[in-house]
């Protein structure tokens, strides 16, 4: 079967050149047709989106919230054909376990229901009505927020559904959206756009989903020329290259690769609590095989609990073994398997010189846990269910150990009592951490979170102010002027 | 079942059920540590039979009721084979299974109970404690403790022996609950009367006939019959079973 990716308002489907991407290996082959637009087609599509975006700006934000809510409700409905297609095809395209994808989609999409969307708005705007009309400002005068006419999204990675985050943000600020899907998961963004168009025909042209082969700078340039704001995800090299191509007058919002980790206080390590703590830690490792920016690479575990950090490893190892039966790891590419082998090799070499080091892993290599007795600095894991557990005397001692990664830090999952949590929060924030979650929730940020410490909506908009002087001066010209 | 690359330690393995279990593991390719108390010749015989069937084997003398001996035993097995994947606690204090001349409750002293508790429970406690660091180090392992179907159905009330085995089942279930989260499984095998063994060699025919008449499979267990369920509980085929008691008595006890 062939599934068509993308969503292209204003471009006749017959005129499009389609490329074929193949997924699923020999056992479960699937072909995805992805559109390659000419410069002219990109221009005409951008014109369509721009026009629609102007109309969107006259629409009350609440109506947009309700439109997204209705679309997301359909995606949550397991009898909806697109939802069924997602449950069938996304595991085959990404290789992730089908159950993990199904549960992941539901958990993720739930964060885009109406109350959650309102949280998005409330997080960033003291008065969300400023997206609809000029609102009085505390300093005097009035202000209104305008989203860009065209917000370009360049997505990366293969975690199903991630593009919805920025697409929804764009819609909430009444932007026209053109998103470029990655070859690793080219489907979900297009399905969302198609379903939104079907559910809410009046705003059907406000978003478009395109594709080009990574590195095709000519097609990328065609989009960058049209964009008012560019949001891009990916590795720092790719992001830096895009920065060089974005016109200086265009706002550029890069989201680079990040490193996250976990911390476990000795209070979470008694004979009753340890099983839940280990389960949560392992869940964060297993979910999407550590492909997310919020996925942990290391757990720093405090000594002195009833269960030692070394024993904690055994609990985590067994949880990983149990998860491997429940949500098996996807099959790896040669380079991914090579990365794990290199990481393990490195850890094994270190273990020759260090008695306290221990490596636990499954016979097939589906998961590995490395234990280190010596306080080690934060370092990336081999990914795909490889995790290091480092014993520390005090969790606060971790702060200097993460300093080398300051520019890459994002989430810390913490199991600790309140006083420790707040104290650690202050320390970690200083070091560049932007998000602290419970262990077990690292891979599911709450609605309205500040991605990499930034504002999802505020970063997208411009404010137009009518200053007090203009108000006053206008009064003088009014018909009713005395 | 392929037990190549697996190391199994069996206590009291120079004869009877223990020897049968040792040979069965060896036949499936395991490396077998044959523990014995006194009978070095018998242990050596078991070792050589194990080697004949294709597995590796060595004999290890130790009194498993003594803490010091137990530590030395585990260390020697680890030194010889490098690891321990499976522990079968099969040893018990000598006991004469004689229904006609058994001690009645009023004849029994606490010392009789203590002797059986030491043989069944204390030895298993010591062995489990000593083997755990090695099993934890690989985050997996299997422990199988030998009980008896008399716990469920005291056809002959061997108070001291059966009480000790009942305690062993409770011990095993608690250990299973604690070690499950780190991937170590603990189960029991509870045979009925097994013939012939040193303990049952003198059991009278009428007793055997009485038991056979009530046994759906119409015979007594042989040592080899017990080995099958032990191997099953040691294998990935039982990977989702822990804290269980498998009765091997031809259906005399049904639970």
Describe the 3D structure.
The complex is a heterodimer of chains A (482) and B (255). Chain A has 482 residues and is an alpha/beta fold. Chain A is built from 15 helices and 18 strands. Chain A folds into two domains: 2-257 and 450-466, Aldehyde Dehydrogenase, Chain A, domain 1; 259-438, Aldehyde Dehydrogenase, Chain A, domain 2, CATH 3.40.309. Helices cover 40% and strands 20% of the residues of chain A. In chain A, strand 7 (176-180), helix 7 and strand 8 (207-210) form a beta-alpha-beta unit. Chain A is globular and about 85 Å long. Chain B has seven helices and seven strands; from the N terminus they run E-H-E-H-E-H-E-H-E-H-E-H-H-E. The longest helix of chain B is centred in the middle third of the chain and has 27 residues, at 110-136. Chain A binds chain B through residues 271, 274-275, 278, 311, 313-315, 317-319, 321, 358, 360, 369, and chain B through 136-140, 178, 180-183.
- The CATH topology label of chain B is Rossmann fold
Give me the count of strands of chain A: 18
Coarse shape of chain A: globular
CATH architecture grouping of the largest domain in chain A: 3-Layer(aba) Sandwich
Please, how many helices of chain A?
Answer: 15
- What is the CATH superfamily label of chain B? NAD(P)-binding Rossmann-like Domain
Radius of gyration of chain A: 24 Å
Order of strands, main sheet of chain A, comes to: 13-14-15-12-11-16-17
Helical proportion of chain A, percent range: 25-40%
């Amino acid at each position: 079967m062939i599934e068509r990716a993308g969503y292209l308002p204003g471009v006749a489907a017959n005129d499009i050149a389609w490329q074929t991407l193949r997924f699923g290996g020999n056992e479960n082959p699937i072909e995805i047709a992805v559109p390659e637009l000419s410069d002219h087609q990109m221009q005409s599509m951008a014109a369509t989106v721009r026009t629609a975006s102007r109309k969107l700006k006259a629409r009350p934000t609440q109506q947009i919230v309700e439109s997204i809510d209705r679309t997301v409700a359909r995606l949550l409905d397991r009898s909806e054909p697109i939802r069924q297609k997602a449950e069938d095809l996304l595991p085959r395209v990404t290789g992730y376990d089908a159950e993990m994808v199904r549960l992941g989609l539901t958990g993720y999409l739930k964060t885009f229901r109406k109350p959650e969307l309102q949280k998005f708005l409330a997080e960033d705007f003291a008065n969300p009505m400023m997206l609809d009309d000029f609102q009085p400002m505390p300093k005097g005068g009035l202000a209104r927020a305008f989203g860009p006419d065209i917000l370009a999204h360049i997505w990366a990675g293969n975690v199903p559904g991630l593009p919805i985050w920025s697409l929804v943000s764009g819609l909430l600020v009444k932007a026209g959206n053109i998103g470029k899907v990655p070859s690793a998961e080219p489907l979900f963004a297009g399905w969302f756009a198609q379903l939104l168009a079907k559910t809410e025909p009046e705003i059907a042209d406000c978003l478009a989903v395109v594709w080009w082969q990574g590195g095709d700078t000519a097609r990328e340039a065609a989009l960058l020329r049209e964009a008012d704001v560019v949001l891009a995800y990916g590795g720092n090299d790719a992001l830096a290259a895009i920065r060089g191509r974005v016109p200086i007058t265009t706002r550029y919002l890069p989201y680079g690769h990040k490193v996250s980790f976990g911390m476990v206080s000795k209070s979470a390590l008694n004979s009753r609590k340890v099983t839940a703590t280990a389960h949560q830690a392992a869940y964060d490792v297993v979910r999407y095989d550590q492909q997310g920016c919020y996925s942990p690479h290391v757990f720093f575990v405090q000594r002195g609990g009833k269960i030692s950090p070394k024993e904690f490893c055994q609990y985590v190892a067994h949880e990983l073994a149990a998860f491997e039966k429940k949500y098996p790891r996807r099959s790896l590419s040669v380079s991914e398997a090579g990365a794990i082998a290199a990481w393990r090799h490195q850890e094994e070499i270190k273990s020759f010189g260090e008695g306290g080091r221990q490596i636990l892993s499954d016979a097939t290599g589906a998961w590995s846990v490395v234990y280190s007795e010596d306080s080690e600095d934060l370092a990336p894991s081999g990914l795909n269910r490889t995790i290091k557990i480092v014993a520390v005397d005090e969790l606060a001692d971790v702060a200097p150990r993460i300093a080398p990664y300051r520019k890459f830090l994002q989430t810390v999952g913490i199991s600790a009592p309140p006083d420790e949590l707040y104290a650690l929060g202050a320390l970690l924030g200083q070091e560049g951490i932007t998000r602290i979650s419970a262990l077990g929730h690292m891979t599911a940020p709450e609605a309205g979170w500040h991605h990499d410490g930034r504002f999802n909506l505020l970063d997208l908009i411009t404010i137009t102010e009518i200053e007090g002087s203009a108000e006053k001066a206008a009064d003088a010209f009014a018909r009713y002027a005395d | 079942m392929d037990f190549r690359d697996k190391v199994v330690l069996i206590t009291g393995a120079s004869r009877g059920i223990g020897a049968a279990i040792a040979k069965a593991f060896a036949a499936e390719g395991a490396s077998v540590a044959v523990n014995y108390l006194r009978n070095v010749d018998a242990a050596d015989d078991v070792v050589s039979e194990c080697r004949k069937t294709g597995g590796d084997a060595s004999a290890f003398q130790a009194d498993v009721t003594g803490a010091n001996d137990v530590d030395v035993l585990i260390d020697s097995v680890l030194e010889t084979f490098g690891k321990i994947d499976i522990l079968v606690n099969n040893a018990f204090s000598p006991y004469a299974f004689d229904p006609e001349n058994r001690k009645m409750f009023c004849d029994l002293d606490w010392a009789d109970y203590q002797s059986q508790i030491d043989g069944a429970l204390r030895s298993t406690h010591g062995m489990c404690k000593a083997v755990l660091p090695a099993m934890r180090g690989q985050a997996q392992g299997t422990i199988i403790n030998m009980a008896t179907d008399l716990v469920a159905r005291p056809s002959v009330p061997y108070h001291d022996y059966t009480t000790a085995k009942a305690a062993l089942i409770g011990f095993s279930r608690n250990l299973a609950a604690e070690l499950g989260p780190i991937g170590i499984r603990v189960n029991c095998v509870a045979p009925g009367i097994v013939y012939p063994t040193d303990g049952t060699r003198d059991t009278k025919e009428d007793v055997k006939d009485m038991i056979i008449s009530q046994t759906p499979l119409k015979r007594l267990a042989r040592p080899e019959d017990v080995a099958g369920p032990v191997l099953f509980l040691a294998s990935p085929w039982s990977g989702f079973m822990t804290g269980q008691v498998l009765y091997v008595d031809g259906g005399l006890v049904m639970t």
